[in-house]
Amino acid sequence: MPNIKYVGKNLFIEKLSVANIAKKGGTPFYIYSENQIKENYIKFVNTFKKIKPLVCFATKSNSNLSILRSLGKLGAGTDVVSIGELLKALKAGIKANKIVFSGVGKTEEELKIAINKKILLINCESESETKIINKIAKRSNKKVSIGFRLNPDIDAKTHKKISTGKANNKFGVSIKNFSVFFKEIKKLKNIKLEALSVHIGSQILTDVPYKRVLTVLSKLIKNLNLNLKYIDLGGGFGINYNKKDKPINLKKYSNLVHSFSKKLNCKIIFEPGRSIVGNAGILVSKIQYIKNGTNKKFIILNAGMNDFMRPALYDAHHDIIPIKKNSKKIKGIIEFVGPVCESTCKFGKYKNYQKIYENDFVAITNVGAYGTSLSSNYNTRPLIAEILVNKNKFKFIRKKQNLLKLISA
Ligand SMILES: *Cc1c(COP(=O)(O)O)cnc(C)c1O
Questions:
Q1: How far are the Cα atoms of 188, 190, 254 from residue 135, in angstroms, in the given order?
Q2: Across the strands, what pairs with 11?
Q3: Domain limits, CATH 2.40.37.10, in the chain
Q4: CA of residue 157 relative to chain centroid, distance
Q5: What is the per-residue pLDDT across 198-220, written as a single tens digit (0 to 9) for each?
Q6: Ligand 1: which of 79, 104, 159, 372 to mutate, most ligand atoms within 8 Å of CB?
Q7: pLDDT at 107 (0 to 100)
Q8: Which fold has domain 4-32+278-408?
Q9: Less CB within 10 Å around the terminal CB: N or C of the chain?
């Protein structure tokens, strides 16, 4: 996290000391480096410079309006998975012709709005959805561009709960079923198949499964003699949560995609989420209590699994680091846990951690993606604040949720 690092003993985010913000009260909160988000986006675009892809940021990874606005200004489009996300993207100033809509269960109501807003592509995930789009379009005498999401049955070699491109995952339609349905699509007068899309999973750390996808797609396009305007290759690019994770080599992949797109003469769409915002945020939390267990010490934070779900949901590892470093050590094992009444409300175990005390602050790292967007009100806890830092300035981009509103129903 180049924009989130220690200066001396103190953790800084860009030019601001995290401790100074935390001391003002209001922990826990999410805090992001705006320049890290921008740098990640620009680096991604530069990696694929030769291809000039449309980069549709996966809104579900972080749907804060200010972050969407910031990415929109750099030219990003968005991938949305609900009408809420679609309306948010438009509100953030992202043009409809840069928005793609994915998801296996889009409702008729959602599809109607997407069609009315004239977004770039609706990526259909079933035969029935395609027919409903055709029906809606027919009613208003329109011809709607669609993409079709394929399930290429490729193992992304990632955590099973974030794999999406295997035959037993609900996403997309198999190559075989699509090949059959394709003949029917041609008969539907009010839709036009302009794209194929794939998204095989998340936190992918090698280019091997991506290469396989290109092979499968090339073969299918050739067999069916398809003439497409876009190929949407999805997202899923992994980040380094652990120091031992090797980053994915996108340069090599970009060369492959380049020749793939030239051969087919179509525009490439990517939908990165995690790799754009993941390393740009931390969750700052106060140590509420420290309690001795039988064989470890419990470090009880004021942030809970409702604020940050990934460890409970995916056994995800996120380093927890002190806001102020010291050179003393705690003997034995400690475990960071939260206040929510579930045994899975815990964030990681450490050995030989530095000395920490009640009321100290710590930061859970790499929480920019699937952090706040997965949070909930479980245990009737208000959604926490989000802060955006740019150089030596910070602003609240979401206030802590109002408790009176929370208890109103
Ligand atoms: C979640 C999702 C993405 C983003 O995945 P990341 O791993 O965050 O890059 C892209 N496309 C679709 C269809 C998704 O569901």
A1: 9, 8, 38
A2: 6
A3: 4-32+278-408
A4: 18
A5: 999 999 999 999 999 999 999 99
A6: 79
A7: 98
A8: Lyase, Ornithine Decarboxylase; Chain A, domain 1 (2.40.37)
A9: C
